[in-house]
Amino acid sequence: MPTGYGTTRGRLLAAIAALMVLAGAALLWLGLRGLTEAPDVQLGAATHRTTVDAGAGGFSLWSPDASAFATAVCTADDRTLLRPVSGYGVEVDGATYHELARSPQGLTGEVVVSCEPAQEFRVGPPAQAASSTGLRGTAGVLAGTTLLVLGLALEGWVLVAGARRRRMESFRVPARRLDPGPSTTPPTQTAAPDRDGKG
Hints:
single chain; 199 residues; alpha+beta; four-stranded antiparallel beta sheet; 3 helices; 8 strands; 20% strand; transmembrane; membrane; transmembrane helix
């Protein structure tokens, strides 16, 4: 692989760029795979009031009405269930169900669940378990894309900087041409004149 700068710094930057590209590609693949392989969501039977065994993982109520979460107030015994801040839906058996409410942290045991105004809902897994989240989802796609773009940009910069450095070095005059050094030709000696003055 090209190293860009012919120096330690250039080789180091090229190695960092390669690692960023590899990590970005891996995260992008992981995120896209998680989004395309949606979890298999199982929902309970449609009901207006039911008893739920709240486990450690929690649960959500799902409604066929996309806007019901905005007005419904659902409770589990005497505790109010959490309301989603935005709409979220999952597809089950060809139909789309939207999160109506979710259990708060720490709710365990059997509880009676109902909503006001009364409406039909299904009990199922919490939204975070019914979707691809974290690195196996949107976060992985965003992180992978960012690392991939930054790595390719750094690699491109290293290559351009290296090419520029080599081009500048090609115009540099070697030192031996500027300083000829000591002469290697022996000095010319003149014969001494004879005693009578004749050369």
